[in-house]
Design brief:
Layout: H1 3-25, E1 30-35, E2 40-48, E3 53-65, H2 70-73, E4 84-95, E5 102-112, H3 119-130, H4 138-149, H5 154-160, E6 164-174, H6 180-195, H7 201-212, E7 214-215, E8 220-221, E9 225-232, H8 236-249, H9 251-262, H10 269-288, H11 291-298, H12 303-306, H13 327-335
Antiparallel strand pairs: 1-2, 2-3, 3-4, 4-5, 5-6, 6-9, 7-8
Helix pairs in contact: 3-4, 6-9
Length: 346
């Protein structure tokens, strides 16, 4: 399992996307590198008050820890208590023009490290401890040995001796004023990226996306979806990594044509006001449901980088409803629905 290759890919992906967005906007991203006291760090790239983007954040992180936080062990209780390593690129782009949709993309890799699992490893730790290695004394290694000797379930012990790893990621589109051709393009690009690995993945990951990016308390989707996958290791490491690269590399093709098509559309303060209202849904999802946000906060991540996805201007209103037959009402009736965007007429 070549984690260094994943690390290098993610760093290069961040640079590639930032460079492409700078060409579109005409302004330069701030590059803010940071270190995490518990281990690892990252680089947050942020553009605020740009010509096209009101706020755009493209973050890379590579963080390590000794014990998984609760947000990561819900789906993997067998990984509780293990040391871990997580790396990823995550972005959210909030354009100024309300006719350009907000977009989110994330690709990540996670490893829960196998515990010490052999007498040879423990003996080595005994020696290192006596020589002043990373353990203070040989008692630590002895405690590990005792825990293994007390293990009665041989099958569980064998499984516990392996690293637990997975890839995750995806992208989703959140329009304020929807256009069918934009939705079709976004989903078709996603499908093309996945079809080389299995024709089943696009419908499967689209369904996961629709289910994940859903505001249960509002009973409405966050946007028109896309693809979402997590805990993915079905194809073995090399092929699973290839699939993650295909998703990450397809982002610019999925989004930039939509951005270019809509960024110069005339708009009024009425459209901006509706955009700010709908951005409130984005904030609600990120703070209440988003696993990445919860994991970052629970693992003592860098708050400024974790909350970089938040829109700069947001509004809430009490029990607001759009005027019937208005363009704003059309978002709810025609776009924030369960729909097959490859066959929208169905």
């Amino acid at each position: 399992m070549d984690t260094r290759s994943v690390l290098h890919y993610l760093q290069n992906l961040q640079s590639k996307i930032v460079e492409a967005l700078e060409l579109v906007d005409g302004k330069t991203f701030l590059h803010d590198s940071w270190n995490r006291p518990e281990g690892g760090g990252g680089t947050s790239c942020l553009l605020e008050d740009g010509n096209v983007f009101e706020r755009a954040g493209v973050g890379f992180s590579h963080v390590l820890g000794n014990k998984l936080p609760p947000a990561a062990t819900i789906a993997h209780p067998e990984a509780a208590g293990r040391s871990w390593e997580a790396m990823g690129v995550s972005l959210v782009l909030h354009p100024r023009n309300p006719y350009v949709p907000t977009v989110h993309m994330n690709v990540r890799f996670f490893v829960a490290k196998a515990p010490i699992s052999s007498e040879a490893e423990i003996a080595s730790l005994d020696l290192r401890a006596r020589q002043g290695g990373e353990f203070e004394n040989a008692q630590t290694a002895q405690a590990v040995r005792q825990a293994l000797e007390n293990e009665t379930n041989v099958g569980a012990a064998a499984k516990a001796a392996e690293d637990i790893w997975w890839f995750g990621g995806g992208m989703d589109l959140t329009p304020y004023y929807g256009f069918e051709e934009d939705c079709i393009h976004f989903h078709r690009t996603n499908k093309t990226a996945l079809d080389a690995f299995s024709p089943d993945y696009y419908p499967q990951f689209k369904k996961h996306c629709d289910e994940y990016f859903y505001l249960k308390h509002r009973k409405e989707p966050r946007g028109i979806g896309g693809i979402f996958f997590d805990d993915f290791n079905d194809l073995g490491f090399e092929r699973s990594f290839e699939m993650q690269r295909a998703v990450g590399d397809s982002f610019l093709n999925a989004y930039l044509p939509i951005l270019q098509r809509r960024k110069d559309t005339p708009y009024t303060e009425q459209e901006r006001d509706f955009q700010a209202y709908r951005r409130g849904r984005y904030v609600e999802f990120n703070l209440v449901f988003d696993r990445g946000t919860l994991f970052g906060l629970q693992s003592n991540g860098r708050t400024e980088s974790i909350l970089m996805s938040m829109p700069p201007i947001v509004k809430w209103r009490y029990d607001w409803k759009p005027e019937a037959n208005s363009p704003e009402a059309k978002l709810y009736s025609d776009f924030l629905i369960d729909k097959d965007w490859l066959n929208p007429a169905i």
